[in-house]
Amino acid sequence: MAARLFLTACALLVAAPALAQTTREQLTIGITQYPSTLHPNIDSMAAKSYVLGFTRRPLTSYDPDWRLACLGCETVPSLDNGLAERETTPDGRPGIRVTWRLREGWRWGDGTPVSAEDLLFAWQAGRDFSTGFGGSEFYRSAYEAIVVDLRTITLRFDRVTFEYASTGTWEPLPSHVERRRWEQEPRTYRSRSAYETEPTNPALWNGPYRVAALQPGAGITLERNAAWAGTQPAFRRIAIRTVENTAALEAQLLAGQLDMIAGELGLPLDQAAALERRAGNRFRFEYKPGLVYEHLDLNLDTPTLADRRVRHALIHAIDRGQIVQRLFEGRQTVAHTNVNPLDWVHDNDVRQWPVDLARARALLDEAGWRPAPDGIRRNSGGERLTVELMTTAGNRSREAVQQVIQGMWRQAGIEARIRNEPPRVLFGETLNRRRFTGAVLFAWISAPESVPRSTLHSDEIPRAERNWSGQNYTGFRNAEMDQLLEAIPIELDRERRRALWQRLQAIYAEELPAIPLWFRADAHVWPAWLDGVRPTGHLAPSSLWAEEWRVR
Fold this sequence. Notes:
Dipeptide-binding Protein, domain 1, Dipeptide-binding Protein, domain 3, 6-stranded mixed sheet, 5-stranded mixed sheet, 32% helix, disordered N terminus
């Protein structure tokens, strides 16, 4: 009998840790950026997308298997199921009407149903460029919105595109909270929105979690949304902590202050690989290749960079293959254009730019930049060939890349002056208002076959009269590129569309509005007891499926 009691006691002791794990109340996640805004339709920033993945749901999104799926709707519209219908527009052009029906039981955190009126309001505000929304092509093309009933809305488009079923940046906004603020003065709405002035208002959130508390620049605390009708999430609370310095981020993980580091905005690959070698038994690591494009955006309105010969010299002087090998253990894919080789429209024959220091020097000679005794070239007016080089402060990997590029450019006679800013400043002000003069190192994240209109079309250059909407930070202006960006979406034939994509990549590789560096593999670091996280490798963050996350 005594032996049996002893064994029972031992079994209880062994089982105790597992029991503790299954009753975890909070998951603490580390990320490297703090959102510049929590408004879902203003500004594009990975940190914001990650947070909103927990707290909101779009109508549609590409899932982890790269298929378009309904999150806030019942069925993805198609010509086959009748939710999409070709028609002729009032001015006689080919058009299409697309209908979405919202899923039953979807509610804002205050219990108000998410309705077609919320989507109507988002469409109306998005079509007014003074509001400062992104996604202008969608709103420009959708010329009429029809509320069919409380849960059904139809948009009429003045063109038929292969993306007709994807809602992109069009997300419901709580009209019972936001409409009055917007109607008062659309131009100042972005600063008066409840997402800016009262972000803990439950009525703003329709996902499995809602924002409960914020410490600006430092962290956001989420709690379960009592109005959520979907699968109950495992954690009562999720704490998202911003640690911009990646060395400090790693230290907090090892000290137990963080449970996990989000791969979307976490440790650089080299740092994660080194951590795995030291502490691989404590955490789970996954390296997810995807559509994350690291590059240098160039300000083409700066006279030096407006000269294509200088841009060609800049890329010839960078040994990108060596950087990938030395800093990233060869895990990144060198980029030759802005389209990832994983994407079916990638052109394998696009022009490539090998490292060629002699050619870089010759191009600079042709452009009028001559060597000087101190090694930095000067033009006929005595001006130094200097390029300001910026990135997100505290990102150890990017700062290391900066230093390597600085050294490589110097060998060609180019001076790189490094000036970095916190992510919320760099993305919220400097890039958004084009307050940079040289090159900025950062990443774009896209969806599969995502047409880069917002970053390359001349209409998308941010300017005051459009309230700084658009993401063509380089100021790239190319008439043929504009035509391609307008033609690709309306070409439904895959092979003809592929040819258009090839021409787009050829122009990009020749003109170099940005310098391609590599396509990133994200390093996800999870606690051993966490299951269900599915990285996508594209624009949609893993947090969009947070209700599937479970404790082992």
